[in-house]
Design brief:
Blueprint lengths: L1 E3 L2 H12 L5 E6 L5 H13 L2 E6 L9 H5 L5 H10 L4 E3 L3 H4 L19 H4 L3 H16 L3 E5 L3 H14 L4 E5 L19 H20 L5 H14 L3 E9 L15 E9 L2 E8 L1
Helix pairs in contact: 7-8, 9-10
Bound molecules: pantoate.
Length: 279
Amino acid sequence: MRVVTSDIELQQVISELSKGNARVGFVPTMGALHEGHIQLVKQCHEENDVTVVSIFVNPKQFNNKEDFDKYPITVEQDKHMLENAFCDVLFLPTVDVVYPEKYKTVQVNLGILDKVFEGPQRPGHFDGVIQVVKRLFEMVQPHVAYFGFKDFQQCMVVKVLRNTFFPKLELRFSETIRQKDGLAMSSRNMRLSAVGLEKATHIYKALKMVRELKKHIEPFDALKYARHILTQNGIEVEYLALANADTLIESKKWLRKDKNVVLVAAWVEGVRLIDNIIF
Ligand code: PAF
């Protein structure tokens, strides 16, 4: 695996490895890698000639300074995991490489996407995601890029970015990878104690319960029960809602198969976790 830190070096290594017209796949990450990332990297390796992974903890997408300061950094372990997952190029840019002096912030009309759920809860977050993903796509110039559905709303935002600036780029979104107990893999799980990890398993249990209750009761009551399960287990719910999986418009009624998405953001031991279920 080649490790590069500048955009010039990155392009040199990619063109050296791809010898002309090879397909370049890209997995952007903020490091603190877990099995969810590794599945994306392996899929990327299977589907492309050159696999590029970036690790960059993007300051612009953190609306909460404490969350940024406490974001886990495990670069040496990440490198080891990436080698084993057949990553060809690890891009480790600094803030100056991603946001050089001449860099101009872009504006993208996200419609309702930054006005619901994560949008109002994390002001500026999606704007930060737009800036960094656009810069990374410009520097890596991939044919295809990989993201996980755990960040469901982010996947929809990235789709808008692609449609606006990179119409030829293919996007692949992958299922959330879960621990055996159902907890969605997340870098933030590293900040939880054993007790917190156990508590956090109730998040997916609550989501599955909503899916199950669809056969019996209306969304309002199903969500009320699920919220109850979470609070009973010491989890503070920020939002828990049903929406249309295509538009992210909140829904008071059950929708057609595969259109229901229940999204949750919840706090365990001072750590903010998100998850979702589609059915
Ligand atoms: O999902 C993430 O890890 C980040 O939001 C991303 C896409 C790497 C941009 O910083």
